[in-house]
Amino acid sequence: MVVYGVALLAICMLIGVFLGDMLGQILNVEANVGGVGIAMLMLVLVIDQLKKKDKLNQKSQDGLTFWSSMYIPIVVAMAAQQNVAGALEGGPMAIIAGVLSVLACFALVPVLSKIGKDKSEEFFENNEIDKAN
Amino acid sequence: MQDTVLALFEKNNLVTAFAVIGITMYISYFLSDKLTKGRLHGSAIAIIIGLALAYFGGIQTGGENGLADLQMFSGIGLMGGAMLRDLAIVATAFGANLEEIKKAGFTGVLSLFMGVFVSFFVGVLVALSFGYTDAASLTTIGGGAATYIVGPVAGGAVGASSEVIALSVAAGLVKSILVMIGTPFVAKFIGLDNPRSALVYGGLMGTTSGVAGGLAATDPKLVPYGAMTATFFTGLGCLLVPSILYFIVRAFAG
Fold first, then answer.
1. Which residues of A touch B96 (CB under 8 A)?
2. Which site among A21, A32, A78, A115 would you substitute to test the B interface, given the most B Cβ atoms closer than 10 Å to its Cβ?
3. B150-158 helix and B162-186 helix, angle to the nearest 10 degrees
4. CA A35, B84, B215, B193 torsion: positive or negative?
5. How is B100-149 classified by DSSP, letter by letter?
6. What is the pLDDT of residues B112-166, one digit of tens each?
7. CA atoms of B110 and B146, how far apart (whole Å)
């Protein structure tokens, strides 16, 4: 049934957010620490197991697919309720601080992406270049 | 007649939101196709329209929730609120590849720390150049440059003035909006086209809504990787900013 997939998703999210809240309390931080990320990891692992045992039928998968395909419309609704007016009313300092921090982080994306690559991946890439030459 | 329709929208607010967002998406994909020949993704246009509507709503009502503060559009607040947003983000993990996450795990953690540090110090430098010299204000504005949640949390912890806290929230909002709008335009230049760079991007940017919007507008397949790291960012920021980073700033600013 479709609802099985939706329920699996809901349970993963609730457990993840709960663990994120607990992690926040342990660290003495007034925020949820990675609840959604934990939920995502849990969902990936559970689905992996269920698929191996062939326990996740097409109908149940449809329940998951529906919510993941509602992602973009939900993000558009999220955009429509941002405090855009408040952001602009913050004045030049707030705008400059926001803009510069985004630019600095954009610039770091390619730098950090390179750092973690394993040797084997680089080896393959070099080989491809060699072949191209 | 008009009142009846308005009452209908208010009473069925979530259903109204589905209709309004669906129409917005249709118009956006139409514009993307006709005006930009698909070069600018339909969802990027939809997000920009959403932000423009949010600005309009904010000006109209003076509230903080954009279009959702208009009674007839209150369902937008539910549809795009944290609960359903997080549910949809978790659902995107359904398409994620576990191996990719394992391979880039360490880089993801590194990018989280780098993201918090870099945003924070950029914020501190900007605050310094605008004449702030006390450690509490500098830390709070630096926190705001991380995310709009870290700013007020840090501000409360180090005892910043409410004026400075408001500024830090504004800085964080600017960041999140700019990440949403800017990502599709810079994606090509920063190599944001594979799971590894998406994990790094999520960790560096950190604003969940910004990353969620930015990746949706760039390539929805990358969403689970970016979102997974981004959701740890605010927590890490709330941990580091009022503690270690505040001490560092205080050592220099006094």
1. 40, 44
2. A78
3. 150
4. positive
5. HHHHHHHHHHHHHHHHHHHHHHHHHHHHHHTT--SHHHHHHHHHHHH-TT
6. 999 999 999 999 999 999 999 999 999 999 999 999 989 999 998 899 998 899 9
7. 16
Same domain, B142 and B239: yes
pLDDT band at B254 (very low <50, low <70, confident <90, very high): low
Q: Are residues B107 and B54 in the same domain?
A: no
Q: Which domain holds residue B59?
A: 2-80
Residue recorded with tokens 């339909």: B42
Last residue of a domain, one of B28, B47, B80: B80
Cβ-nearest to B114 among A10, A64, A112:
A112
Residue B7 and residue A65: Cα distance in Å, rounded?
A: 33
Do B116 and B192 reside in the same domain of the chain?
yes
Task: Please report whether residue B167 resides in a domain.
Answer: yes
Residue type at position B212: A
Taking an 8 Å cut-off on Cβ atoms, the answer to whether B182 and A102 are in contact is yes
Report pLDDT digits (tens) over B83-99: 999 999 999 988 888 88
CB-based contact, B19 to chain A, within 8 Å: no
Instruction: Note whether B76 contacts A80, CB cutoff 8 Å.
Output: yes
